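Weekly puzzle thread! Below is a chain. First person to post its structure in token form gets bragging rights.
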Amino acid sequence: MRTGRPDGRKRRWRQHKIDRREELVDGTLAAVRARGSGAGMDEIAAEIGVSKTVLYRYFSDKNDLVRATMQRFIETTLMPRVYGAISLDADEYQLTRSALAEYVGTVDEDPEVYRFIMGNGSNEQSSLAEFEKLFAEVVAAVITARAGEKGIETDGALLWSYVLVGGIQLATHWWTTEKSISREEVIDYLTMMAWSAIEGMARANGSRETFNNQPHVLPTPALDAKNAVAAREKTDAAGTEDAATES
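Winning reply:
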């Protein structure tokens, strides 16, 4: 007779497959770090200590293995570092720079894994898209919370976040293949871009109408620097006069 209760053996077997897949994915990460991003199924299997047949028992093909590896890397390595940076008790500029530094640093410190998951998964982009969606939603939540505290409109927060995340991901990917500038330069330039965008949004109060009604003229850096120096000298002089008057 059928009791309607799930078969305990089937449940245990499903859990075994899940656990075994995770073990093999962790083994793949170690294999790629040891043998490089170009490692094939034979090399990965040899490094793990199993036959290639075992890999194909748990993964339909290499794309399936790459997809699972990408998810594991994002969940256990990349996102925890980014989450930690975003969760810092710091001002908005420091949060921006810290998050960028962690993202770029994670990719730079694990280049073979990054190239493996980005270079081999061209036929399967769903995991990358899911990561970008998750990352954008996290950034949007931070923008909404921080801007909301200051009374800034946040209707465009999710769109802004997708622009920031997509641009950062693409720029970092380019850098990993070119390496024409240093890691610190990458962080500086990305921070310059991201912070300028965030600061501009805040200056317009997050409002399309306010932004459209503002003058949009590129500043002249040399003139601005000269004015900044003059203003600082004026402030210093005023402080000196005040001190002299008090004495």
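Puzzle host: Confirmed. Bonus trivia for everyone else. The CA atoms of residues 200 and 206 lie 9 Å apart.
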